Amino acid sequence: MTLSYDEVVAKYEPVLGLEVHVELNTNSKMFCGCSTIFGAEPNTQTCPVCLALPGALPVVNEKAIESTIKIGLALNCSIAPFSRFARKNYFYPDMPKNFQISQYDEPICVDGYVDVEIETDEGPKTFRVEVERVHMEEDTGKSLHVGGATGRIHGAEYSLLDYNRAGIPLVEIVTKIVPGTGKYAPEVAKAYVAELRDILRSLGVSDVKMEQGSLRCDANVSLRLIGAEKLGTRSETKNVNSLRSVERAIRGEMIRHAELLNAGGRVVQETRHFQEDTGLTRSGRSKEQAEDYRYFPEPDLVPVAPDAAWIETLRAALPERPSIRRKRLQEAWAVADKEMAAMINADVLDSVEATVLLGADPTKSRTWWLGEISRIANEKDVALADLSITAADVAEIVALVNAGELTDKLARQVVEGVIAGEGKPSEVVAKRGIKVVNDDGALMAAIEKVCTEQAETAEKVRNGHLPAAGALIGAVMKETKGQADAAKVRTLLLTHLGQAEG
Amino acid sequence: MIRSNATEMAAKLATGEITSVALTQAHLDRISAVDADVHAFLHIDTEGALAQAAAIDAKRAKGEKLSPLAGVPLALKDVMAQKGIPTTCGSKILEGWRPPYDSTVVANLKKNDIVILGKTNMDEFAMGSSTENSAYGPTHNPWDLSRIPGGSGGGSSAALAAFEAPLAIGTDTGGSIRQPAAVTGTVGVKPTYGGVSRYGLVAFSSSLDQAGPCARTVLDAALLHEAISGHDPKDATSINAPVPQVVNAAKSGDVKGMKIGVVKELNGDGYQAGVRARFEESLELLAKAGAEIVEVSAPNFEYALAAYYLIAPSECSSNLARFDAMRYGLRVGDVDGASAESVMNLTREVGFGKEVKRRIILGTYALSSGYYDAYYGSAQKVRTLITQDFIRAFEKADVLVSPTCPTTAFKIGEKANDPLAMYLNDIATIPVNMAGIGGMSLPSGLADEDGLPVGFQIMSPVMKDERMYLVGAALEAALLSKWGAPLLDKAPIMGGAR
Question: Does B176 qualify as catalytic in the annotation?
Answer without folding.
Answer: yes
